[in-house]
Structures are given as structure tokens and as C-alpha cells.
Amino acid sequence: MPEPPKVEVDPDLNAAGALVVSCFPSIGFVSSIVAHYLVDKLGLEMVGGVRHPKLPPVCLVQDGKPLPPMRFYSGEPLCNMERCDKIVLIASEIQVIPELNLPLATTLLDWCSENGVGAIILIDSYAQGIGQQHSIFDDDESEESMLGIGSTDASHETLAGLGVPLLKQGVVGGITGVMMGECRRREIDAMAILAESDGDIGGSLPDARAAARIIECLDNLLPAVHLDPEPLLAEAQRIEGEIREMMAVHLNPPSESGAPSSMYG
Predict the structure, then answer these.
(1) Each residue of 127-179: pLDDT tens digit?
(2) How are beta strands 19-23 and 119-126 bridged, if at all?
(3) Alpha-carbon dihedral of residues 197, 202, 206, 210, nearest 10 degrees?
(4) For the stretch 63-80, what's the b/e string if a residue is b when 16 or more beta carbons lie within 10 angstroms of its beta carbon?
(5) Residues near 239 by Cβ (< 8 Å), separated by ≥ 6?
(6) Which residues lie below 8 Å from residue 99, measured CB to CB, with a gap of 6+?
(7) Does the CA dihedral 79-80-83-88 come out positive or negative?
(8) What separation in angstroms does the CA of 56 have from each of 39, 73, 96, 173, 220?
(9) Exposed/middle/buried for 245, CB within 10 Å: 0-12, 13-18, 19+?
């Protein structure tokens, strides 16, 4: 049997009641910008990561320190969400290869269940057009849509409170789609928030504006995130630049299965 991904975190981490925010690669690097912003503004500390032989054999380097490509951060900022007294952030800049989607989702959700987390939010994005990871039927004609998916009635109520309309019809792929399906099967309270992005199909053009919309949305849950719109956008653009510098082509190699290199999630 193939070795499953393994979560290795600080043994002193207490994730009971935590809000888990998952940020895997997305069109326009939206989720990556959101992750870096939350780490900076909420003062989150790295507490571990995920290991697996099929993850890229690299480390990211930031401020002279090595970072695993798939990382866990934690902290205790103010949170307005019921059963949320701390944050656990899962951040990654690498695409998850298709064969790892289900094993990784299983490992992450097992860890969440075993540690008694309160709720899960998946941050993602989508773009209109052929060859995208997600096939979203979006009735909103604006280019600044945000859509939500909830695994439970409680998560639907939370999305409504955040002002995020539910996705009525579509197909969500990659790790986001697999985790949402598994959360409903396991009756885990989880939601996904997807921002419409004008990032290019290849995903190499970061979209700070879409990330800023999600950050403003999360402000209703996390008061410490709050910034006025213009400074917030400037901050997102600064992080966008940092991600450009940190990313390397070999972190997102083309899929061996022949799938388009634009596959994110």
C-alpha cells in the first residue's frame, strides 16, 4: 500500500476548537496571497508541515530560513465564529498532483477530526473559460464575484452571514473539490470561498484584487485582519511581489498525466 501523506506538527499544538483555513494553489495565486497576508497580519507561527515522497524535493527560502512546501501555521487572534478560539492555517505554493488529492484530503481531515477542530474554510479561486480546474456557472455578470460552498446547513448560514452567495451549479476540482466532498460525507462543518480571478489560465499572473476581496470577507470572522480597502490592496500587491520572487518553475511542474498545466487546487 502506498505511503499516505503525514502531518508533522509541534506536539504542543492544541487545535481543539480551531478554525482551519486551507490555502492551496489557485488561479491568480489568490489563496497564496491570502495565506501570506494572514500569517503576517495575525502573527501566526509555523508549527509544522506535511511530508510525502511525492511532494517536490525542495524547500522554500524566506528571510534566509528554509520552509517546507506544505506548511502549518497557528495563532490565537480574535475570532467572531462560534467554536473558534484559534487559527490553524495550511499553506502551500505547490500544485497537488491528482493521485495525491484523495490521500492528502484524507490525511488532513483525519488530523482535523482527531484534534477536534471547530470548522474548516477552504480558500480558492476560479476563472471563466475552457481548461480550468473548476467549471463554475456564475450568474453574476460582474468580474468580482465570490461564491461559497458549504458541507452542512450551519456552514450555509455562516456563508450567508459573510455575504457570500452559494454556488448554485458547477464542478469544483482538485483538493478543494475532494475535501468538500469528504467533509459532507463525514458531516464535517466546512465551507469553500472562491473568488473570481482575472489571473491568466497558466496561473502565473497573481491577482491581488481577488485576494483582497476574500481578505475583506474574512474580516467579518477575524477582526484583526481589518484594513481599509486601499491599504489592504497595496498590502496584497506587496505579498504578490514576494510570492513572485519565492516561486520557482519546478515547484509546479506539468502533470505527467497530460492534464493542462493550468490545473490548480
Answers:
(1) 875 445 666 665 655 555 889 999 999 999 999 988 999 998 888 988 999 99
(2) parallel
(3) 10
(4) eeeebbbbbbbbbebebe
(5) 33, 36, 37, 40, 208, 211
(6) 54
(7) negative
(8) 23, 20, 10, 21, 36
(9) exposed
Integer-rounded Cα Rg, in Å, for the chain is 17
Pairing of strands 146-150, 135-136: unpaired
Burial class of residue 53 (count of CB atoms within 10 Å of its CB; 0-12, 13-18, 19+)? exposed
CA atoms within 13 A on the CB side of 33: 35
| 7, 50 Cβ separation under 8 angstroms | yes
Is the CB of residue 51 less than 8 Å from the CB of residue 228?
no
Rounded CA gap, 49 and 190, in Å? 21
pLDDT, residue 84, reads 59
Summarize the confidence of residues 26-52 as an average pLDDT.
89
CA dist., res. 84 & res. 78, Å (int)? 9
